[in-house]
Specification:
3 domains, Cytochrome Bc1 Complex, Chain D, domain 2, about 0% strand, 9 helices, mainly alpha, elongated
Length: about 250
């Protein structure tokens, strides 16, 4: 056989081999992604093979679609971007399925399947909350409510104001309706726990006053039309793993 035929035969064999390997890898990757969708979302992180696929795919998706707001997962109080690494959840309890729901349908995103049950009223406006007939608060009343919150944290400087603020909280202000009678929050509607030291926008007097005066209604976009179902699940798994990774580094 001429030498050039032998060379071409070797090249042909290499091309066939590379193509077969690529096809096998593509099939394996497709099966790995299919396995993620068949699995119980809450069991993925406990299954090494599934976790490896989900975390790699989820990390890439997070960087492309989520990091522009969330950065590395830490907080941005200037914009009210939550800390995804601290294990404290505003909506839900950190289950993969709950996070996946947010990734797909968002929060106040306009998607009818998204979370949009409540928002923080703007008590300085004549009509603080469109959904309920809540009366506005005067600047003094707003400061009283802040003193009540400080009282809950043991830092009140005006006990009389704190007492007045407590009555507003439990009465005409309607704060209890979302944050609970004990101010412990409600993850079903995204109402923050006011008793802990986790603050979405910060807890300086000026920030608290602005929050009560102007209201808050943060938005998380819906990616149901942008991401495939497996990409959304992988991002949810990655986000669910962030607090564990943070804990492991301590």
């Amino acid at each position: 056989m001429p030498w050039w035929r032998s060379r071409w035969l070797i090249v042909l064999l290499l091309v066939v081999t590379v193509s077969v390997v690529a096809l096998v890898r593509t099939a394996d990757a497709r099966e790995a992604r299919n396995a993620l969708m068949r699995a119980d979302p809450e069991a993925i992180l406990a299954t090494p093979s599934l976790a490896h696929t989900a975390l790699a795919l989820g990390r890439d998706g997070f960087v492309r679609h989520c990091a522009s707001c969330h950065g590395t997962g830490g907080p941005d109080q200037a914009r009210g971007v939550p800390d995804l690494t601290d294990g404290d959840y505003l909506y839900g309890t950190g289950q993969v399925a709950e996070i996946e729901q947010i990734v797909l349908h968002g929060i106040r995103s306009g998607d009818p399947r998204g979370w949009q049950l409540a928002a923080m009223p703007a008590y300085a406006r004549p009509k603080p909350y469109a959904a309920e007939p809540i009366p506005p608060m005067t600047p003094t009343q707003i400061r009283d409510v802040i003193q009540f919150l400080r009282f809950k944290h043991g830092t009140a400087t005006d006990q009389a104001a704190a007492a007045r603020g407590g009555k507003l909280y439990a009465g005409s202000g309607g704060c209890y309706d979302c944050h609970g009678n004990d101010a412990g929050g409600d993850e079903a509607v995204g109402a923050p726990n006011l008793l802990d030291d986790v603050w979405l926008y910060g807890n300086t007097p000026a920030t608290l006053e602005r929050t009560i005066r102007e209201g808050r209604a943060g938005i998380s976009p819906a990616f149901a039309t942008t991401l495939s179902p497996v990409e959304a699940r992988a991002i949810a798994v990655y986000v669910a793993a962030l607090p564990r990774h943070q804990q492991d580094q301590r």
